[in-house]
Amino acid sequence: MKFTDGLWLVRDGITINGAVQNYVVEKTPEGLTAITQTTPITGRSATLNSTLLTVKFHSPLPGVVGVKIIHHDGVQERGPVFELTKGTGDHVKIEETDSETVLVSGGLRVVIRKGQQWAVDFYHGDERITGSGYKSMAYITDQDGNTYMREELDLGVGEFVYGLGERFTAFVKNGQTVDLWNKDGGTSSEQAYKNVPFYVSSKGYGVFVNHPELVSYEIASEKVKKAQFSVSGESLEYFVIDGPTIKEVISNYTSLTGKPALPPAWTFGLWLTTSFTTDYDEATVNSFVDGMAERDLPLSVFHFDCFWMREYQWTDFQWDERVFPDPVGMLKRLKDKGLKICVWINSYIGQRSRLFEEGKKNGYLLKKPNGDVYQCDLWQAGMALVDFTNPAACEWYAGYLRDLVDMGVDSFKTDFGERIPTDVVYFDGSDPMKMHNYYTQLYNKVVFEVLEEKLGKNEAALFARSATAGGQQFPVHWGGDCYADYESMAESLRGGLSLGLSGFGFWSHDIGGFENTAPAHVFKRWLAFGLLSSHSRLHGSTSYRVPWAYDDEACDVTRYFTKLKCSLMPYLYDVAGQAAEHGWASMRAMVMEFPEDPTCEVLDRQYMLGDSLLVAPIFQENGEVKYYLPAGRWTHLLSGETVQGGSWRKEKYDFFSLPLFVRQNSLLAIGSVDNKPDYDYAAGVKFGLYSLEDGTGTSATVRDLKGAPELTVKADRKGSIVTVTAEGSGKEFSLSLKDLGAISSVEGAEQVDETTVKVNAGAKSVSFTITLK
Predict the structure, then answer these.
(1) 265-344+391-418+436-587 maps to which CATH number?
(2) Which GO terms describe its molecular function (predicted)?
(3) Residue 301: helix, strand or coil by DSSP?
(4) Of 44, 319, 657, 721, which sees the most CB atoms within 10 A?
């Protein structure tokens, strides 16, 4: 929200009371409290009829400093609030000199100046990373009596801002006005399904605004050297989060707001759906499933979209008996074919649903201020919304989900959750403005916890559309409604990369686009992108998404990339484990892995899949692609070609390839199975050792299906000698040299050919050396 008219003037009707002078800084049990004046104090009389701002500094975790700016402290706090990790505060140090008071938390320092002009500076070590200066912190009123709190943090020369949730606009947020308000706006607008009040800077720090309500950002827009954010009310709290790398920032941020859960391994396979408004019954479903099997197209999950329930009755959790007369038997028959089952749900209850009367009678539905049930006709006729602030309503809703899990359902697509009204009353008295974005957190939490309860930890997975901060704890999320063209494919990727820089570890999208039906060439290019994403789903609106509906080659492309992804699962599941442990996205923006390369700071049409694989999807019918390889040796995974990076490349590919490169000094684990995603990854795993430089080392971890490390292999090179150690499984594995020349001799293992070594099953601790020619 803009308050000024250019650099010098204030907009009509706006009054800004900004911090100008430090009155006092006091030590508190939580940290520091500063009192700042909004007018200079020239004498005792100047203290009358004045506005003060109270600024509290505290640190919940090392490397994280909270700043709370308060005007009037008598405002009654109403929830909801983000659930944040709070440490003991023992890590905090307070230092004071004649000119400044300092709070130290890990490698982060916040310095409050004692001079005549208000200034707060944040340092990593000796480097100033950002700060709040004269009049930046402010209490603002408008002509209608509305009040706002504002902060402006400095942006340096060449500094870029990323994140703020899944945003489909430009990847770099500089120059944008961003209002965080969940909306069902598709992927082709400035609106977003997943609004997260957190951004990360290319300078290696992040800022989390601790407000679930509307947060309005001006990122180098109202003032081009400031990242401004504001909220309505009498207080504003934000956290500056230290790095110094983007990966460390995100790790610290997710330590504060929650780490992503680890999805079960089966979710990484190919998902196929009925699509949205298409006609289908059990025979149709079987024709899809059997058609995939007949064409040797590995399928892991079948999803039933909305019309598994009868029209007008969503959500009632009841199979439409006209087309599914034997749902229990049908699900068993599908599961006997090796499939997992997902069904579509949402949190809206149509008036014709069997749940409506129950919800109305028991007070489980959102109400208007006069006590009536809130209803509308947008989506389902007469629909109401479940009030997830009511514990009894949560248990009521969860009970129906348990019944479906008992029937054979393994996962739920938790659609919608964005169209949440603000003229309503919640059971627990929550502020409806704060609940608009936060509603999805409660909704997805209820569903996720049912799956964990019924299926076990690391067996729960959603396919969710809406989210806010903390939503990363309930994966997986998908990008929403996109068109079936290259532009939407690209905007989907931008959204996924932004979400990954907002703490979300797992992300998917509708392969081929949701709206309309893609030309075959778009579908085939999207297949490569989709099957090199963390999760992969074929889904559409008005037409089926089975590959043979496009052309025969689409089947071949589907088979090729699905099998490739299954074979990559030992690597991908370790990447998933890193997401759960550190908060790092599986699909990482280039700047996340190469923060020192200025070219990577703006790249949004390619990404790193984990830390070792570079993927550049193709967005043109003719197969041409322009992409950038950072400095170092890169080996194309499919062709084996090795090239030197540090430059842009322009190439042309057929439908069975794309730029897919392995980074130098990588030890890449390839599985022995290519027809399903969940198997014994350590059994017969093949490691590729890529361009290992002299004097360097690398390692790879293979996990079991619960995400626990099972086999760890390390390789170190000194001159022509490569020393390899393995700890863990005791199962047979092999190691092949890539761009390292031929083997001269091997000690401690069996040489297979001039580039490959095999370790037989047996010992759980292995060490051997390879001498290079």
Answers:
(1) 3.20.20.80
(2) alpha-D-xyloside xylohydrolase; carbohydrate binding
(3) strand
(4) 319
Sort strands 507-508 and 477-478 into parallel, antiparallel or unpaired: parallel
Strands 215-219 and 270-273: unpaired
Looking at residue 29, what is its pLDDT? 93
Q: By three-state DSSP, how is residue 237 classified? A: strand
Q: How many CB atoms lie within 10 A of CB 711?
A: 25
Tokens of 420: 């949440």
Number of neighbours of residue 583 by Cβ within 10 angstroms = 25
The three-point CA angle 101-102-104 to 5° equals 165
Burial 500-509 (b: 16+ CB within 10 A, else e): bbbbbbbbbb
Q: Taking the CB of residue 660, how many other CB atoms lie within 10 A of it?
A: 21
- Taking each helix axis from N to C end, the angle separating 569-582 and 246-257, rounded to the nearest 10 degrees, works out to 60
Distance CA 479, CA 268 (A): 16
Say how far apart CA 357 and CA 105 lie, in whole Å: 53
pLDDT at residue 254, as a whole number: 98
Degrees, nearest 5: CA angle 518-522-528: 125
Distance, CA of 428 to CA of 290 (rounded, Å): 49
CA angle 545, 418, 279 (to 5 degrees): 30
- List the catalytic residues: 415, 418, 481
Structural contact between residues 296 and 270, judged by C-beta atoms closer than 8 angstroms: no
* DSSP H helices in 546-615: 552-567, 569-582, 590-593
Per-residue pLDDT, averaged over 402-422, amounts to 98
Q: Classify domain 1-75+90-154 at the CATH class level.
A: mainly beta
Q: Which residues of 327-344 are buried (b: 16+ CB within 10 A; e: fewer)?
A: beebbebbeeeebbbbbb
Query: Which pairing describes strands 721-727 and 709-718: parallel, antiparallel, or unpaired?
Result: antiparallel
Peptide bond into 55 cis (omega under 30): no
pTM for this entry: 0.97
Q: Which residues pair with 150 in a beta bridge?
A: 138, 230
Per the DSSP assignment, residues forming a β-bridge with 52 are 37
Residues 6+ apart with CB under 8 A from 311: none
Taking domain 680-772, whether its CATH number is 2.60.40.1180 is answered by yes
Domain 1-75+90-154 identical in fold to domain 680-772: yes
Q: What is the mean pLDDT of residues 604-608?
A: 98
Q: Which amino acid makes up residue 632?
A: G
The pLDDT assigned to 333 comes to: 98
CA atoms within 13 A on the CB side of 150: 28
Residue ranges per structural domain of the chain: 1-75+90-154, 265-344+391-418+436-587, 680-772
- Give tens-digit pLDDT for 494-517: 999 999 999 999 999 999 999 999
| Count of C-beta atoms within a 10 Å radius of residue 142 | 15
Quickly tell me which residue has 């806010």 as its tokens: 468
Q: How many angstroms from the chain centroid is the CA of residue 65?
A: 23
- Cβ contact 231:437 at 8 Å: no
Do strands 205-209 and 226-232 pair parallel, antiparallel, or not at all (unpaired)? unpaired
Give pLDDT tens digits for 363-378.
Answer: 999 999 999 999 999 9
Specify the DSSP element, H or E, that contains 397: helix 391-407
Instruction: Give the 3-state secondary structure of 239-287.
Output: EEEECCCHHHHHHHHHHHHCCCCCCCHHHHCEEEECCCCCCCCHHHHHH
Q: Mean pLDDT throughout 443-449?
A: 98
CA neighbor of 469 nearest in space, from 83, 202, 77, 87: 83
Mean pLDDT of 558-566: 98
CB atoms within 10 A of CB 112: 21
